[in-house]
Amino acid sequence: MFIIHPNLKLCYPSAPTQLQSSFSPPFTTPILHSRIKITSSSSSSSDNHQENLQTKSSSSAGRIKRLVLTQEGRTKLNISPDRDFYAYPRFVTHVDDGFISTLTDLYRERLRPGWEVLDLMSSWVSHLPKEVEFKRVVGHGLNPQELAKNPRLDYFFVKDLNQDQELEMENCSFDAALCTVSVQYLQQPEKVFAEVFRVLKPGGVFILSFSNRLFYEKAVSAWREGTGYSRVQLVVQYFQCVEGFTQPEIIRKFGGGGGGGGGGQADQKLPFSIGWIMRLLGSLSTSDPFYAVVAYKNFKPIYE
Ligand SMILES: C[S@@+](CC[C@H](N)C(=O)[O-])C[C@H]1O[C@@H](n2cnc3c(N)ncnc32)[C@H](O)[C@@H]1O
């Protein structure tokens, strides 16, 4: 794993003091000395998921109570290394304006100024509200050129989470973790969610969002073969398999149009008739459906 500033200046491990002075809290000291390692890819990690329910940082990662995916459920049609697939930058947006506007509203509602935010599986665009200032936004993804262009990232690192799920950061170092339209590519979601749990502060939030678009050949089979409903349930299970996350909230919004609604309606709170009509309208709509699953580490804080 290596860390690069958006201006593409590499933070070399040989200059730990420089690094420490610029971002000491989220990263563990040993990483400062070994970060330049670039993980190589192979297809083997998807085969050894039964070996151990704990992540590498087993003493502190969230405890995995059970595995959600079968071995078959983790498979991809395209088994070439993910790093190769993302080797060239794609300066595109993966979802439409309505989806992005809904997501930004959700972030506006759930995130607070001054927070430390981890944006997993990120790219060149940020969906964070422009007017909100955070203490630090750390990005992660597979393509350094995309990440270097992302205007909201203070730092970023490149790591294939299907090869190694360990996030080389201190326990309890982020107020929020985000993952947008990417969870379908994770072959070891249980371990990744356990690591996110570990790096979140108590009361920290993990916001997962997705639509129905995907790089089909790179999505795991459990996702490819699912429906919108079953994909939501899959993400709910990813949360539930890690001890300590609060009951996941499901947020759905169909029909696009962008903006409004504080990040979409929590569907389970709607009277049946309205929810049914919204789903019907959604099924007729050509805009990208919005799904988010949100849970907190240990408890959901109340902000005045
Ligand atoms: C559809 S893009 C979404 C990018 C960004 N979250 C957004 O909203 O525009 C999927 C992202 O997942 C990341 N990704 C895919 N497979 C990955 C893997 N095995 N490990 C880490 N990141 C991966 C890629 O870097 C890519 O940027």
Automatic annotation (TrEMBL):
<keyword id="KW-0489">Methyltransferase</keyword>
<feature type="region of interest" description="Disordered">
    <location>
        <begin position="38"/>
        <end position="59"/>
    </location>
</feature>
<feature type="domain" description="Methyltransferase type 11">
    <location>
        <begin position="162"/>
        <end position="208"/>
    </location>
</feature>
<dbReference type="GO" id="GO:0032259">
    <property type="term" value="P:methylation"/>
</dbReference>
<protein>
    <submittedName>
        <fullName>Methyltransferase type 11</fullName>
    </submittedName>
</protein>
<dbReference type="GO" id="GO:0008757">
    <property type="term" value="F:S-adenosylmethionine-dependent methyltransferase activity"/>
</dbReference>
<dbReference type="InterPro" id="IPR013216">
    <property type="entry name" value="Methyltransf_11"/>
</dbReference>
<dbReference type="Pfam" id="PF08241">
    <property type="entry name" value="Methyltransf_11"/>
</dbReference>
<dbReference type="InterPro" id="IPR029063">
    <property type="entry name" value="SAM-dependent_MTases_sf"/>
</dbReference>
<keyword id="KW-0808">Transferase</keyword>
